[in-house]
Amino acid sequence: MGTFSFRPLDLSPTSGGETPPPTSGGHAPPPTSGGETTPTSDGHGPTPTSGGHAPSDAELLHRWVTDPKAAFWMMQDAKLEDVEREYMRIAAHEHHDAFMGLHDGEPAFLMERYDPRHVELVGLYEPEPGDVGMHFLVAPTGTPIHGFTRAVITAVMRELFADPATRRVVVEPDVGNKAVHALNEAVGFVPEREIQKPEKRALLSFCTRERFEAAVGGAEVPR
User: Fold this and answer.
1) What CA–CA distances, in Å, run from 88 to 22, 41, 75, 167, 206?
2) Which of 5, 19, 113, 176 could be 10's S-S partner, Cβ–Cβ 3.0 to 4.6 Å?
3) Spatial distance between the Cα atoms of 186 and 188, rounded to a whole number of angstroms
4) pTM, whole model, 2 decimals?
5) How many CB atoms are closer than 10 A to CB 4?
6) Who's near 121: CB < 8 A, 6+ residues apart?
């Protein structure tokens, strides 16, 4: 399945897609940013590139979130500047951050991490110490790789639990996103109840470190 790693998004307007290398050990730095988006995962592998232009992170994200397979992300009509603005807002937020997920060194998925005490779920549930919110989006592709999306969510969960302060991962996918419900269950999430968010009816679900390890059988994700 290859190796997985993470790096901060590079939204500099003149980057041309060039970004810093993955952080040491593949681990993301402590949360330093924020914003609000909606989770989905429908693609199954990296987005191919062509020609001599290496797309910037903003261009890649725009392509991903406006793809029909990313309907649950609710950015189908977004323009490139809308995506840039949203992720610059996340980068400036104290309690939300976003990372480019790499598969064999190439951009293949997006991971967002947030503090549910301050973002997305404020007033909708009682947070516990060590709760971390998560969204992820896999790049759409015309050539799916069997098992890729499950490998991605496993890599994302390992990255979140690499921080010893993380005790429980919280997600709130759309109640209609059956594909993501199945993926969440496969890595140890347990639904608690439906909640009404401003933008959607969501299924509030939790995964403890112990449930995750039991679900994946201690399997290591290559880095």
Assistant:
1) 20, 22, 16, 28, 28
2) 19
3) 6
4) 0.82
5) 23
6) 127, 133, 170, 172, 195, 204
pLDDT, tens digit, 9 for 90 and up, residues 111-137: 999 999 999 999 999 999 999 999 999
Q: How far is CA 149 from CA 39, 43, 137, 141, in A?
A: 13, 7, 9, 12
Question: What would the pLDDT profile of 62-90 be if each residue is shown by its tens digit?
Answer: 999 999 999 999 999 999 999 999 999 99
Tokens of 70: 């990313």
- The continuous run of DSSP H or E covering 83 comes out as helix 80-92
List, for residues 149-198, the tens digit of each pLDDT value: 999 999 999 999 999 999 999 999 999 999 999 999 999 999 999 999 99
